[in-house]
Design goal:
SH3 type barrels; globular; alpha+beta; Arc Repressor Mutant, subunit A; 11 helices; four-stranded antiparallel β-sheet; about 40% helix
């Protein structure tokens, strides 16, 4: 039983933040008090600015709604450490997210108990993060509009810049946002082209909700993430290569740094093959970095359909082939 009123109110607030809805009887049981005490404490929270709403039902209940201002949140020890570590490592391709994370982390660490601050510091000191891969940044305001349209099932209009730099007006039914290695994608049904599309959010501008709702269509893949993976794998790239690796397929799949999991074809117990594709040489090298780290031999072949680029494609293939030969010689001794 929580007899101290301030402590009891903090416990009540923690319960309301931890679940969408509570009945009055459940709250009274958790707090070990009578129902009238719960009602008085709810009124005190409302006076402090917390938007606690009453819910209808057999016994009635309460829920913490969204308000005009963000109220203080109560976190347990594990939640506080998780948030602090997440803020320390926040790099998601969103413009300004790093600066916002630093400000939020400073506020959080200021009020962390010493035992938790030590845990966060220990994790930070023992962790080394490689710099994120350079990539396009997206406007958080655009992400907010897209996320709201996905949630509300609201038809969107926007401008989209394709790979060839052509900008077209689109009207689409947004389904999901997918983020992978700092790149954001919108999965949507394009009304004008009458088909599902994957839109790079960094190429999308001026999204405007139309106010018109739609019934969601079934995705052509099992989920939005799988659809994005299939779309990227099927896209035409400026540079491409087929890599045969002297290692098990599962080991190679785990080592690849590709933006999304790609199909690795087993050729035997200790050999496999996969396709690389990218619009820049730097991206192609980055995709292969995981395989280089395995320290096993591999061979490179370039598909004939890759367009000629003044010898640049031959140059990258020759470089990769040489790297494969050197690794093979080192492994074989």
């Amino acid at each position: 039983m929580t007899t101290n009123m301030p402590a009891r109110m903090l416990r009540l607030l923690s319960l309301l933040q931890g679940r969408r809805e509570w009945s009055g009887a459940e709250l009274a049981e958790r707090l070990g008090v009578a129902g009238r005490t719960v009602r008085r404490d709810i009124e005190r929270l409302r006076e402090l600015g917390y938007p606690v709403e009453g819910t209808t039902g057999t016994a009635g209940g309460y829920r913490l709604a969204s308000g005009k201002n963000l109220p203080p949140l109560l976190l347990d020890d594990e939640e506080a450490v998780a948030v602090a570590v997440g803020l320390r490592t926040a790099t998601s391709g969103v413009t300004g997210i790093e600066e916002s994370s630093v400000r939020a982390l400073a506020k959080l660490e200021q009020v962390l108990p010493s035992r938790l601050r030590q845990r966060v510091t220990t994790l930070g000191d023992a962790t080394v993060a490689l710099p994120p891969r350079a990539g396009p940044r997206v406007d958080p305001a655009i992400l907010t509009v897209l996320a709201a349209a996905c949630r509300d099932r609201e038809l969107l209009s926007f401008d989209y810049r394709a790979r060839d730099e052509e900008v077209t007006a689109r009207r689409a039914e947004p389904h999901n946002l997918v983020t992978v290695y700092g790149r954001w994608y919108l999965v949507a049904f394009d009304r004008g082209r009458e088909g599902w599309r994957t839109f790079r959010v960094d190429r999308l501008t001026a999204p405007v909700p139309t106010g018109r709702r739609f019934e969601p269509r079934p995705l052509p893949a099992g989920d939005a993430g799988s659809y994005v993976a299939e779309s990227i794998a099927a896209a035409p790239y400026r540079y491409a290569a087929v890599v045969t690796v002297r290692a098990p397929a599962g080991e190679v799949s785990a080592a690849l740094y590709a933006p999304l999991p790609r199909k690795v074809e087993p050729l035997g117990e200790h050999e496999c093959r996969f396709r690389l594709g990218a619009d820049s040489l730097a991206e192609l090298f980055w995709q292969l970095a995981g395989v280089l780290g395995l320290g096993v031999g591999f061979t490179i072949d370039g598909p004939a359909e890759v367009p000629d680029d003044g010898g640049a494609h031959d140059e990258v293939l020759n470089y990769l082939r040489a790297a494969g030969r050197r690794l093979t010689e080192a492994v074989d001794g």
